[in-house]
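Team,

Forwarding the record for the chain on the shared tracking sheet. I've put the sequence and predicted structure together so nobody has to dig through attachments.
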Amino acid sequence: MFWNPARVDHDICKDVPYPPEEVYEAITSTQKFESWWPDWVSFKVKQVKPDLIGTKIDIITILGTVNSELVDYQENKSTTWTYENGPMVGNVRWTLGQSLNKKKHTHICYKSRLQSSGVGADIAVRTLGDDWMKSCGVGMIDGLEVHLDNINKED
């Protein structure tokens, strides 16, 4: 029997009114992830590397736990995380750039290239649907913006 895993390939982008350095700080500070990721996600930080490469976290979701590792980054420009040994495998890349429309804004993109790793995850992804999966990425970017809003209110 041939099995074709469900894919979750999304490019979700938004301009946020903060400089790339501030956005980058939020997307690389593992201890701050829970303040801007969706409520139904939690994290276990397994290893933090000073140069970021090799930083490892477990992402605990309604679909199960994913082992994730930071495998590439360009300071203030991008990060790439692999997702392994969980319901979804592949990679997620965050990119940051100057907004073309608004000065002093960062254009942030969340790009997922994931697939289900087993029949249970496959059924869940197909049942929840592509719109729901895409809403997760939208929720992360919106949550990131709220997190940055809250930090800047404190200043």
